[in-house]
């Protein structure tokens, strides 16, 4: 019985991941993102190691899930404590607008992803063309990670900012917990006219641990779609 055909979406993700991994140079310390596209990055890195290439590259995972995948494939890992400055991070995104501002956190790893991105000299975002958007919030809510203590007060605060709030749940119907044990409130703002202003208001709120607006962190974007694979930089 033959394997099922690869969908266009998966093929585009794979092509973008392969192009992105070409940016890894020998000896680098590399941040490894979370999510389906980042998993393809990790698998591509493992495949190259199987060919005897990039053997001295080590990764810093942004989630327990990525850590487990990397270890299962034999990709060596390190920590930010051992390497507080990373050469390069490869990660995905849920929504990307033309200035390469992002919404991230669909997989729930937004806080660690942001910490790793901020510690990186270069952040290369890897997406398929479906993730491109004219304005953040058009197609994706902003994930907001909050402490369990007082989370309803955070929900009221976010509603006053104009969001429709959904507390994220796991497959079993219980509240989703991040790797830090926190909750995620998915905040549908609609198209966000001033993402920097919104990010500042979220950053200033006690009880909000992290949010999925990634602004000024993306160095480069690799995007794959029907027209091929493009490598973009902020305008």
Quick gist of this model?
With 235 residues, this protein is of the alpha/beta class. The chain is built from 6 helices and 13 strands. A 6-stranded mixed β-sheet has the order 2-1-3-6-12-13, sandwiched between helices.
Sketch the topology as an H/E string, one letter per element: HEHEHEEEHEEHEEHEEEE
Helix content bin: 25-40%
Biggest sheet, spatial arrangement of strands: 2-1-3-6-12-13
- How would the global form be characterised? globular
Mean pLDDT rating:
96
Please give the structural blueprint.
Elements: H1 8-21, E1 29-32, H2 36-50, E2 58-61, H3 64-72, E3 88-91, E4 95-96, E5 102-103, H4 110-118, E6 123-128, E7 142-146, H5 151-160, E8 164-167, E9 183-188, H6 195-203, E10 208-211, E11 213-214, E12 220-225, E13 228-232
Parallel strand pairs: 1-2, 1-3, 3-6, 6-12
Antiparallel strand pairs: 4-5, 5-11, 7-9, 7-10, 8-9, 12-13
Helix pairs in contact: 1-2
Structural account:
The protein has six helices and 13 strands. The chain is globular and about 55 Å long. It has a six-stranded mixed β-sheet with strand order 2-1-3-6-12-13, sandwiched between helices. Strands 8-9-7-10 form a four-stranded antiparallel β-sheet. A three-stranded antiparallel β-sheet has the order 4-5-11, with helices on one face. It has 235 residues and is of the alpha/beta class.
């Amino acid at each position: 019985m033959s394997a099922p055909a690869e969908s266009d979406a998966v093929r585009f993700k794979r092509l973008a991941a392969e192009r992105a991994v070409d940016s890894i140079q020998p000896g680098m310390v590399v941040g490894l993102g979370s999510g389906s596209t980042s998993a393809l990055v990790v698998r591509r890195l493992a495949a190259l190691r199987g060919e005897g290439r990039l053997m001295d590259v080590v990764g810093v995972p942004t989630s327990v899930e990525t850590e487990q995948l990397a270890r299962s494939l034999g990709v060596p890992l390190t920590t930010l404590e051992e390497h507080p400055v990373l050469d390069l991070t490869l990660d995905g995104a849920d929504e990307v607008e033309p200035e390469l501002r992002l919404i991230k956190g669909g997989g729930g790893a937004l806080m660690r992803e942001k910490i790793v991105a901020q510690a990186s000299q270069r952040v290369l975002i890897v997406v398929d063309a479906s993730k491109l958007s004219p304005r953040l919030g058009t197609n994706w809510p902003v994930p907001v990670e909050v402490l369990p203590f007082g989370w309803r007060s955070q929900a009221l605060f976010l509603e006053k900012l104009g969001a429709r709030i959904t507390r994220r749940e796991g497959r079993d119907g219980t509240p989703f917990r991040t790797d830090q044990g926190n909750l995620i409130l998915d905040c549908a703002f609609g198209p966000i006219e001033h993402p920097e202003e919104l990010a500042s208001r979220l950053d200033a709120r006690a009880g909000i641990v992290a949010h999925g607006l990634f602004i000024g962190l993306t160095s480069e974007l690799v995007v794959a779609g029907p027209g091929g694979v493009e490598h973009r930089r902020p305008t």
